[in-house]
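Researcher: Here's the sequence for the chain we discussed earlier.
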Amino acid sequence: MIDDLKSIAIFATVIEQGSFRGAARKLNLSPSVISYHIAELEKKLDTALLYRSTRKLSLTSQGEALQKVSKNMLEIVEEGLLSITEQSDTLRGKITISLPTALTRSDYTRALASFCQRHPHLEVNILYSDVFENLIEKSIDLAIRVGTLPSSDLKSRRLGQITRRLVCTKQFVAQYTPISQPHALSQVPWIKLTSLPAKRTLTHPVFGRVDVEFPHQISVNSVEGMTQLCIDGLGVATPPTYLVENFLEDGTLVELLPEWRVSPIPVFAIWPNNAMKKSATMRLVAHLAKAIT
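Model: Thanks. This is the structure I predict for it:
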């Protein structure tokens, strides 16, 4: 079937150019290749399509019928290609995006929402998951990942970072010796995030950097779950700032060692390396980079 379509396209070009040589020049093929495809097409259809002379070509009645078919076919193909590669603001088709559940209530989701509103003809499939799926195997066009990226053939762009706060409830911290230095954090229970080690790095503008290893009874595989368990008074945690700002303001949570900062986590967009510059994927990467900055 593919060879037939190619032969029909070559046939249409021969008619358009008026000669085998003209078609060969336009298609960057040799005249012998052009002749071969026309002969194969005539053989398959069991009919002559062209009358050839040294000076001109003319169509048989069957050739005239095929000319109409080939013209319609090429017009449909050209329209289809134009709709895919159109460089206007109108995006069509479908795009699948993966991002961790921790970003559900973040600026990244708000940026995705504004992108969807801007391109109402684009079908957008958003997957919130803490499983790092294989983009190629799962047909994912773009993924947002947090933390250090493993080595791969995927393309990437850093979008920003997630700031975190060292928090717990007043009732919880009241059970322990007052925490005035980072080393005291190793004496109180934490809520551990499954994907991260039982260690956090804190930085101070004067005292520098300190690594704190902590004990834990509870591990959880969700940042939102970790945050809620912290609100429920089960331990110290380091959730993203955007998840706990309101709870710090109303006193539900308190910030421990506010002069110390938990190391932020970098956020990246990653995508298959064959994404085209004008594709929805690359337009979304540019949108996210601008919206988050």
